[in-house]
Write a structure and sequence with these properties.
By secondary structure, the chain is an alpha+beta fold. The chain has helices at about 5-25, 115-125, 130-135, 170-185, and strands at about 45-50, 60-65, 75-85, 90-95, 100-105, 110-115, 150-155, 155-165. About 30% of the residues lie in helices and about 30% in strands. Strands 6-5-4-3-7-8 form a 6-stranded antiparallel β-sheet. A two-stranded antiparallel sheet has the order 1-2.
Length: about 190
């Protein structure tokens, strides 16, 4: 074989190898972008869609991410009621699934389960941003001697009020949870 033919074969082989390497990166599937991803999570998922006739690549379609409805309370809810003329001391605890337990001052225990409607209402009230805002409000001394004191704990949020008509109005979201728990569990303070 002559040296010129050998160089031509070598050059053709190298050019072919280079072309195969360059074209090997081209596929019909989109590659991930090489830029830094956005740190905020997407609000929807991307699922494969129909093929595009011209290139054969898959077109993304957006489908909303939908999970099962949240039917429970996000955290355990505890209400402690004390005071009053008789010096009561009741504790109501509601688990995220709606199971409740009431323990009175004497240690007697009652249990039950919230109705789906009451559990839904409690879940909405527990997630109400007013509840956290009310927990940050400063408290002032009460003007009533024999009033009921309500302390409400929802997850890490603790709030409360004294049921005294001479004081400022109770915080509305806190009062709504207290009234719901007292009614739904049959715990009466009067």
């Amino acid at each position: 074989m002559r040296p010129t033919t050998m160089r031509l074969t070598s050059t053709t082989g190298a050019a072919t190898a280079l072309l195969v390497a360059l074209l090997g990166g081209c596929t019909s599937v989109d590659r991930a972008p090489t830029t830094t991803p956005d740190p905020t999570p997407p609000s929807a998922t991307t699922a494969p869609g129909p093929s595009a006739p011209a290139t054969g690549t898959l077109l993304p379609t957006t489908a909303p991410t939908v999970g099962p409805p949240n039917s429970g309370v996000p955290a355990t809810v505890t209400l402690r009621t004390s005071g009053g003329f008789a010096g009561r001391g009741d504790s109501v605890t509601v688990e995220p699934d709606g199971q409740w337990t009431v323990v009175d001052q004497a240690g007697s225990r009652r249990t039950g389960r919230l109705t789906p409607a009451d559990l839904g209402r409690l879940a909405g009230l527990a997630a109400d941003p007013r509840l956290a805002a009310e927990a940050r409000q400063p408290t002032s001394p009460t003007r009533c001697a024999d009033a009921f004191h309500h302390r409400l704990v929802v997850g890490n949020t603790e709030t409360g009020y004294v049921d005294c008509p001479a004081d400022a109005p109770p915080p509305p979201a806190t009062q709504a949870v207290v009234k719901l728990l007292l009614r739904a569990t049959g715990t009466h303070t009067r």
